[in-house]
Amino acid sequence: MKKRKKLLPLGVKNQIKTELPALIALEAVGQPWFCEDHLTDMMSLAMVCMVLADKESEVHRDASRLFLELGKPTLDGESLRPLVGRTSVWLQRQPNGKVERAIDQLLGTHCKGPC
Question: C-alpha distances in angstroms, 103 versus 27, 90, 91, 99?
C-alpha cells in the first residue's frame, strides 16, 4: 500500500517543522550541547518573521531584536525567551502559503514572473 503524505488543514502548521526547532534551540542556550544548528533555527524564525511582518509591527520589532540578540557573542536565554515565544506564536498563525513564500524568498528560490 502506498504511503500517503498527511495534509494539514489550511492555516495549520506542522509544529515539528515550524515551531519546535526554535523552542528546542531556546532550551539549549547555555547548555554544553548548544550548537550552530540551534542558533540557525532561532535565526530562521527571526528572518521569516521579518520578511512576513509589516515593518512597523510589534512582531517585526521582536524579530529584529531577536536577530540582533542572536548575533551577540554570549546569548542570554532569559532575554531570548519572550522574543522566541512571541515570534513563534505569531508565525504559527500565518497562512501556510505566505510562510512558504517567505522561506523561498530567503532561500532565493521564489519565482519572479510566470512559473
Answer: 24, 15, 12, 6
What are the distances in angstroms from CA 115 to CA 17, 95, 98, 112?
26, 21, 17, 8
Query: How much is the pTM?
Result: 0.77
Contact 52, 94 (CB under 8 A): yes
Return all residues near 18 (Cβ < 8 A) that are at least 6 apart.
91, 92, 99
Cα gap 80→95, rounded to integer Å: 25
Give, for all 115 residues of the chain, the pLDDT tens digit. 555 444 444 444 455 455 578 888 888 999 999 999 999 999 999 999 999 999 999 999 999 999 999 999 999 999 999 999 999 999 989 988 888 888 888 888 755 555 5
For residue 70, the Cα-to-chain-centroid distance in whole angstroms is 13
Q: How far apart are CA 68 and CA 84, in angstroms?
A: 13
